Amino acid sequence: MSFMWAIFTALIAVGLLALVFGAILGFASIRFKVEGDPLVEQIDELLPQTQCGQCGYPGCKPYAQAIADGDDINKCPPGGDATIKRLADLMGVEATSLDAAHGSEDIKKVAFIREDECIGCTKCIQACPVDAILGAAKQMHTVITDECTGCDLCVDPCPVDCIDMIPTQTTPSSWRWNIESIPVKQVS
Predict the structure, then answer these.
(1) Which NCBIfam families does this entry report, sorted A to Z (predicted)?
(2) d(C-alpha 124, C-alpha 153), whole Å
(3) Which residue has the higher pLDDT, 70 or 184?
(4) Where do the domains of the chain lie?
(5) Does this model's pTM top 0.85?
(6) Architecture in CATH of 38-104
(7) How many helices and strands in the chain, by DSSP H and E?
(8) Binding site residue list for [4Fe-4S] cluster
(9) Is 103:129 a contact under the CB 8 Å cutoff?
Protein backbone atom coordinates (compact mmCIF):
# COMPACT_ATOMS: atom_id res chain seq x y z
CA MET A 1 0.00 0.00 0.00
CA SER A 2 2.85 2.42 0.79
CA PHE A 3 4.32 1.75 -2.67
CA MET A 4 1.07 2.87 -4.35
CA TRP A 5 0.96 5.93 -2.09
CA ALA A 6 4.53 6.86 -3.14
CA ILE A 7 3.63 6.60 -6.84
CA PHE A 8 0.49 8.66 -6.31
CA THR A 9 2.46 11.33 -4.42
CA ALA A 10 5.13 11.43 -7.16
CA LEU A 11 2.48 11.87 -9.86
CA ILE A 12 0.82 14.71 -7.94
CA ALA A 13 4.22 16.40 -7.42
CA VAL A 14 5.13 16.13 -11.13
CA GLY A 15 1.70 17.43 -12.11
CA LEU A 16 2.02 20.44 -9.81
CA LEU A 17 5.52 21.20 -11.08
CA ALA A 18 4.27 21.04 -14.68
CA LEU A 19 1.42 23.39 -13.81
CA VAL A 20 3.74 25.90 -12.11
CA PHE A 21 6.34 25.84 -14.88
CA GLY A 22 3.61 26.10 -17.53
CA ALA A 23 2.22 29.19 -15.83
CA ILE A 24 5.71 30.73 -15.63
CA LEU A 25 6.37 30.07 -19.32
CA GLY A 26 2.95 31.45 -20.28
CA PHE A 27 3.60 34.64 -18.32
CA ALA A 28 7.08 35.00 -19.80
CA SER A 29 5.82 34.57 -23.37
CA ILE A 30 3.36 37.44 -22.88
CA ARG A 31 5.62 39.69 -20.81
CA PHE A 32 8.74 39.36 -22.98
CA LYS A 33 7.06 39.17 -26.41
CA VAL A 34 9.23 40.63 -29.17
CA GLU A 35 7.33 42.81 -31.60
CA GLY A 36 8.30 42.44 -35.26
CA ASP A 37 8.70 45.23 -37.77
CA PRO A 38 5.36 45.63 -39.60
CA LEU A 39 7.13 46.61 -42.82
CA VAL A 40 9.16 43.37 -42.77
CA GLU A 41 5.95 41.41 -42.24
CA GLN A 42 4.26 43.13 -45.21
CA ILE A 43 7.27 42.54 -47.45
CA ASP A 44 7.44 38.89 -46.37
CA GLU A 45 3.75 38.44 -47.26
CA LEU A 46 4.47 39.62 -50.81
CA LEU A 47 7.38 37.22 -51.34
CA PRO A 48 6.55 33.76 -52.77
CA GLN A 49 7.75 31.81 -49.70
CA THR A 50 9.80 29.33 -51.73
CA GLN A 51 12.73 29.63 -49.28
CA CYS A 52 14.98 28.85 -52.26
CA GLY A 53 17.89 31.18 -51.48
CA GLN A 54 18.25 32.42 -55.07
CA CYS A 55 18.17 35.99 -53.76
CA GLY A 56 21.35 35.36 -51.76
CA TYR A 57 19.54 35.06 -48.42
CA PRO A 58 18.64 31.80 -46.65
CA GLY A 59 14.90 32.38 -46.99
CA CYS A 60 12.12 34.85 -47.69
CA LYS A 61 12.01 36.38 -44.20
CA PRO A 62 15.73 37.33 -44.17
CA TYR A 63 15.33 38.79 -47.67
CA ALA A 64 12.30 40.78 -46.45
CA GLN A 65 14.42 42.15 -43.60
CA ALA A 66 17.18 43.07 -46.08
CA ILE A 67 14.68 44.89 -48.32
CA ALA A 68 13.38 46.82 -45.30
CA ASP A 69 17.00 47.73 -44.53
CA GLY A 70 17.54 49.06 -48.07
CA ASP A 71 18.55 46.10 -50.26
CA ASP A 72 17.32 45.81 -53.86
CA ILE A 73 13.79 44.49 -54.52
CA ASN A 74 14.67 42.70 -57.77
CA LYS A 75 16.44 39.54 -56.55
CA CYS A 76 13.52 37.05 -56.41
CA PRO A 77 13.19 34.86 -59.54
CA PRO A 78 10.26 32.78 -58.20
CA GLY A 79 8.29 35.96 -57.53
CA GLY A 80 9.20 37.48 -60.88
CA ASP A 81 8.11 40.84 -62.21
CA ALA A 82 4.73 40.73 -60.44
CA THR A 83 6.38 40.54 -57.02
CA ILE A 84 8.88 43.25 -57.94
CA LYS A 85 6.00 45.56 -58.93
CA ARG A 86 4.16 44.86 -55.67
CA LEU A 87 7.32 45.46 -53.64
CA ALA A 88 7.97 48.72 -55.53
CA ASP A 89 4.42 49.89 -54.76
CA LEU A 90 4.82 49.02 -51.08
CA MET A 91 8.25 50.61 -50.72
CA GLY A 92 7.45 53.67 -52.86
CA VAL A 93 10.34 53.05 -55.26
CA GLU A 94 10.56 52.52 -58.99
CA ALA A 95 10.02 48.95 -60.22
CA THR A 96 13.01 47.47 -62.02
CA SER A 97 13.43 44.26 -63.94
CA LEU A 98 14.63 41.03 -62.35
CA ASP A 99 18.38 40.97 -61.63
CA ALA A 100 19.76 38.35 -64.04
CA ALA A 101 22.54 37.46 -61.60
CA HIS A 102 19.96 35.74 -59.40
CA GLY A 103 18.23 33.75 -62.15
CA SER A 104 15.28 34.21 -64.44
CA GLU A 105 11.54 33.97 -63.95
CA ASP A 106 10.16 30.56 -64.83
CA ILE A 107 6.80 28.84 -64.81
CA LYS A 108 5.70 27.19 -61.55
CA LYS A 109 7.13 23.70 -61.21
CA VAL A 110 7.17 20.97 -58.58
CA ALA A 111 9.68 18.22 -57.96
CA PHE A 112 8.87 14.66 -59.03
CA ILE A 113 10.99 11.73 -57.88
CA ARG A 114 11.14 8.68 -60.13
CA GLU A 115 10.71 6.32 -57.20
CA ASP A 116 11.93 3.18 -58.99
CA GLU A 117 15.32 4.88 -59.51
CA CYS A 118 15.62 6.40 -56.01
CA ILE A 119 18.37 4.81 -53.89
CA GLY A 120 17.30 6.43 -50.62
CA CYS A 121 20.40 8.53 -50.03
CA THR A 122 18.37 11.33 -48.25
CA LYS A 123 20.42 14.10 -49.91
CA CYS A 124 17.26 15.57 -51.45
CA ILE A 125 15.53 15.59 -48.05
CA GLN A 126 18.43 17.53 -46.55
CA ALA A 127 18.36 20.04 -49.42
CA CYS A 128 14.60 20.73 -49.28
CA PRO A 129 13.99 24.01 -47.39
CA VAL A 130 10.27 23.33 -46.82
CA ASP A 131 10.34 19.61 -45.90
CA ALA A 132 8.26 18.60 -48.92
CA ILE A 133 10.13 15.30 -49.45
CA LEU A 134 9.25 12.16 -47.50
CA GLY A 135 11.44 9.11 -47.16
CA ALA A 136 13.98 7.34 -45.04
CA ALA A 137 17.55 6.17 -45.51
CA LYS A 138 17.81 3.37 -48.06
CA GLN A 139 14.08 3.70 -48.82
CA MET A 140 12.41 5.40 -51.77
CA HIS A 141 11.43 9.05 -51.40
CA THR A 142 8.42 10.96 -52.65
CA VAL A 143 7.39 14.60 -52.89
CA ILE A 144 4.35 16.17 -51.25
CA THR A 145 3.33 18.26 -54.25
CA ASP A 146 1.11 20.61 -52.23
CA GLU A 147 4.12 21.54 -50.07
CA CYS A 148 6.74 21.74 -52.85
CA THR A 149 7.61 25.33 -53.79
CA GLY A 150 9.54 24.41 -56.94
CA CYS A 151 12.80 25.90 -55.71
CA ASP A 152 14.87 23.27 -57.58
CA LEU A 153 17.32 22.80 -54.68
CA CYS A 154 16.75 19.03 -54.46
CA VAL A 155 17.81 18.28 -58.06
CA ASP A 156 21.57 18.93 -57.89
CA PRO A 157 22.35 16.87 -54.74
CA CYS A 158 20.69 13.73 -56.17
CA PRO A 159 23.51 11.32 -57.14
CA VAL A 160 21.33 9.21 -59.47
CA ASP A 161 19.52 12.11 -61.17
CA CYS A 162 16.04 10.73 -60.44
CA ILE A 163 14.35 14.08 -59.69
CA ASP A 164 12.52 16.00 -62.41
CA MET A 165 10.96 19.43 -62.16
CA ILE A 166 7.59 19.26 -63.88
CA PRO A 167 5.29 22.21 -64.62
CA THR A 168 2.17 22.38 -62.49
CA GLN A 169 -1.22 22.50 -64.10
CA THR A 170 -3.72 25.10 -63.02
CA THR A 171 -6.79 23.47 -61.53
CA PRO A 172 -9.74 25.04 -59.70
CA SER A 173 -8.09 24.16 -56.38
CA SER A 174 -4.63 25.53 -57.29
CA TRP A 175 -5.71 28.65 -59.19
CA ARG A 176 -4.74 31.98 -57.61
CA TRP A 177 -5.76 35.57 -58.31
CA ASN A 178 -3.46 37.65 -60.46
CA ILE A 179 -1.21 39.27 -57.86
CA GLU A 180 -0.94 42.50 -59.89
CA SER A 181 -4.69 43.16 -59.55
CA ILE A 182 -4.61 43.28 -55.73
CA PRO A 183 -4.02 46.77 -54.30
CA VAL A 184 -1.16 47.32 -51.88
CA LYS A 185 -1.62 49.36 -48.72
CA GLN A 186 1.47 51.44 -47.98
CA VAL A 187 2.97 51.67 -44.50
CA SER A 188 2.82 55.18 -43.10
Answers:
(1) PRK05113.1 (NF003475), rnfB (TIGR01944)
(2) 8
(3) 70
(4) 1-33, 38-104, 108-168
(5) no
(6) Orthogonal Bundle (1.10)
(7) 5, 4
(8) 52, 55, 60, 76, 118, 121, 124, 128, 148, 151, 154, 158
(9) no
